[in-house]
Amino acid sequence: ADYLLLRIFTLEGNSQNLGDLQKKSLQVGATGNSLVFQSRLWADHETVPQTWPPAYAPYSSELQEKLASWLPLPPTTAAWDPKVPEQTRSYLSTLDVQASLSQVSERSLRADSSVWRDLLMTKLQIVFFGFDEATVAQRYQLAEDLISAGRLSSAEEQLQRVLKMDPWNNSARFRLGNVAQMLGDWRQAMDLYQRVFQTDPKYSNAASLYNKVARQHPWVLSAQDKEFLDSLRYQRTSDLTIQKDLWPGLFGQVDYGTISTALHDHNGGYQEIHTLLQLEFQPWGSLFTLTPTVGGSYWSSVYRYGATPAFGLDARWGTTALNLDASYMGSVLPDSRLDEGPDLWAHTLSGAASYQLTLPSTGTLQSLSGRSWAQYQILMGDGNTILTASQDAAAVFHVADNPWTVFQLLASGVWESARISPAPLDQENENRYYAPQGDLTLKGGAALSTWIGLGNGAVLGWTLRGAWGPYWQDFGTGNSVQYLVNEVETRGELTWGDWSAFVDLYYSKTPIATDSSYWSSQATIGLSAKLPNYIIP
């Protein structure tokens, strides 16, 4: 009654009666004589009530006139579970009426009554939801049963009724998005998933499904959708490394790091904490180094969590002109943690050869360098293997002495191929990881670097690098597609005695279609310092 009277008088413009109305509303509300939720009136009169509580006598004609245009109410004998009390069914039969009234009130109530409107609506919600929680749960369970039976339209209707009764029920809104996705209403599904995630970011699976629909049906994306997708894609990493010379010929290193991602391909968020311990031995002098590694990580994704070990061994031999490296690493493939399938153990063998030819300092061309690298990865869970090979080359030209400036010409090529391509599917019929059928990337670029002495042993350096080139997906097959890759990087460094710091900014973009692209930007800040012996003995 508080709500109805307030609405009547503000709509009719009787502002002179508002103060008196507010007082009467408080008095009536305190005694519990609420017209809207007075079960005696609604249960006994399926049409317009003919009697009113005494407190409303001065306004009976206005109430009668207004209610005549809003009613009659739906029959109280609607198809409800017989276990629901008749009085409760009477209350529920007014749901649609109350929903329409609240919408009208939102538009119509003037500013000077907004505080009272909020107060009264809160009272309405408390009274209503206080006795209807069981019915909300029943409707939600009924919707789940209808989904299991394949009756999606009926399930959609029940979930919409749940949201009318409980507009903050994100579980129902999420399931309504699932139903819309099953019915092929991609736009509706994306809108529901977005609203769920924005009102409750803990629903990371809503963001995951939004991303999945967007990837599968890009033609329904608006500019706002693409902007929202970009806001979901991020990764934060942190890393702390402590190094120590233990004694001649033995060097130790401890690494601690974290990774946090919002979206990874079609999957949702991912977090990881990892630690590694490395010891470097030089049993036969400084030219040869053995480095065993042992560690592990604790991780969690949308679907599951766990702890996995990691171990490896690296062997290096090098001079000023040539360095050879061979290594083995055993760990769980990170992508296999992102779905409900089992972990895939990856045994990775890699080898690299780096070489540099230093030319006489009298010429402009200072040096030629290159690096050949190959990796062979064996996935024990599904029998797949992935081969990656790359070749880099660089030519360094001297430009100026003060400040010291050099210019580099860069070239690189990368080849990737898997024995089983595409990779096996997970329970949602998505590839568990990317297994290239034969991807080839060729890039050419340039870099400009300069260093300036600041005095007192301080040196400031700056580098700008860019690279461009074609990328062929499924190269050499009938389904080969060519794209253009471009990337830009700038890096600033400051060195002062045993201290150094750097800031690195990186951006890359690969067009995939006329209206979309894969792109990434990365900002890295680093600090290195030599700690005194009393901190690390």
List keywords for this structure.
single chain; 537 residues; alpha+beta; 15-stranded antiparallel beta sheet; 15 strands; 30% helix; elongated
Mind explaining what this structure looks like?
- The chain has 537 residues and is of the alpha+beta class.
- Among the domains are: 2-135, no CATH class; 316-528, no CATH class.
- It is built from 12 helices and 15 strands.
- It has helices spanning 2-12, 18-31, 39-44, 60-70, 86-92, 95-108, 114-148, 152-165, 170-182, 186-199, 204-216, 223-232, and strands at 235-247, 250-261, 270-281, 288-301, 305-318, 322-332, 345-358, 365-379, 385-401, 404-418, 439-455, 458-473, 481-496, 499-513, 516-528.
- Strands 1-2-3-4-5-6-7-8-9-10-11-12-13-14-15 form a 15-stranded antiparallel sheet, with no helix packed on it.
- Helix 8 (152-165) packs antiparallel against helix 9 and helix 9 packs antiparallel against helix 10 (186-199).
- The longest helix is centred in the N-terminal third of the chain and has 35 residues, at 114-148.
- The radius of gyration is 34 Å and the shape is elongated.
- The model is unreliable at 5-50, 70-78 and 125-131 (pLDDT under 50).
**Amino- and carboxy-terminal Cα gap:** 78 Å
Counting DSSP E segments of at least 2 residues, the number of strands comes to: 15
- Segments where pLDDT lies below 50 for 5+ residues? 5-50, 70-78, 125-131
Main sheet specs: 15 strands, antiparallel
Principal-axis shape: elongated
Strand order, main sheet: write it out: 1-2-3-4-5-6-7-8-9-10-11-12-13-14-15
Helical proportion, percent range: 25-40%
What share of residues are in beta strands?
35-45%
Work out the helix count. 12
Rg, please? 34 Å
Calculate the mean pLDDT score and round it. 76
**Order of helix and strand elements from N to C terminus:** HHHHHHHHHHHHEEEEEEEEEEEEEEE
Supply the helix-strand structural class.
Answer: alpha+beta
